[in-house]
Amino acid sequence: MHKTNKIIITCAPTGSIHTPSMSPYLPVTAEQIAHAAVGAAEAGAAVLHLHARGENDGRPSPKADDFMRFLPRVKQACDAVINISTGGSATMSLDDRLEGAKAAQPELCSLNMGPLIFDFSGAGKRVEHWQHDWEADYVASSRGRIMYNDNAYIERIMLEVGREFGTRFEFECYDIGHLYTLAHFADLGLIEPPFLIQGVFGILGGIGPDPRNLSHMVTMADSLFGDDYIFSAFAAGRHQMDFGTQSVLLGGHARVGLEDSLFIAHGELAQSNAQQVMKLRTIVEALGREVASPAEARQMLGLKGGDNVAF
């Protein structure tokens, strides 16, 4: 792993798992997403991992128009690296999931390194009243869906987004096998280091939120990639801050955001993404590390620069 005293904090403000009924603080309109993203950047997030939502009902959206309602606002208001999801949600086709990335041509995109069961149906148990008619079924039916990326899909994303636009990737690895898939594509020469590996823990269907799993993932990544990768991690739900802290202790970076957890402490909803970023920043600085600026993150990740995007 490439180690540094400068810690990249990524913030994922909205995602596609949580629904409007789960928290009044979840940003879903373009104005809310822009405000949340900029606030997270001002709090110390160097990278913003962004999904889009439908303007009327907060449904996850792959549409370029929905991304473009907030991307220019975020870029104008802060210098953070904008990272567009190619994962979208498990209800979207690959062409759907690529629409926003192809329109935006961003510096960075997320890329799931394989298929997995992505069951978040348990999140619906806390909801007493649903605001929109799509929410309850969307959450409950996640038990029967696969978040799908096979090797052909992965290659398409690498070529149609990476090669085409000079976009680099946040490789989301939900299990150890995903590291080997990443190594396969590195061997083919379709991607080049430094590889940003985002370890994802605590999704029902992926690797569990046991700190020993995080250590094991770093050990295996070291064996596969040596110094050619940068590691970051996050865990879903209540393990969010624990895993961010451990990742930093191991020499890596960390991600927070309402996409991953709606809470700031046990039983207490986070009132903003910036609140989570500030909590992680406090931990990072208490450990004697420094929070990386967007410019420092760009240098570490080998990005093309914010002037070379399409928004």
Automatic annotation (TrEMBL):
Entry annotated with the keyword Transferase: yes
One Pfam family cited in the UniProt record for this chain: BKACE
Cofactor: Zn(2+)
Keyword hit for Zinc: yes
Keywords: Metal-binding, Transferase, Zinc
Record-level Gene Ontology MF annotations: 3-keto-5-aminohexanoate cleavage activity; metal ion binding
Domain of life: Bacteria
Entry-linked InterPro entries: Aldolase_TIM, BKACE
Protein name listed in UniProt: 3-keto-5-aminohexanoate cleavage protein
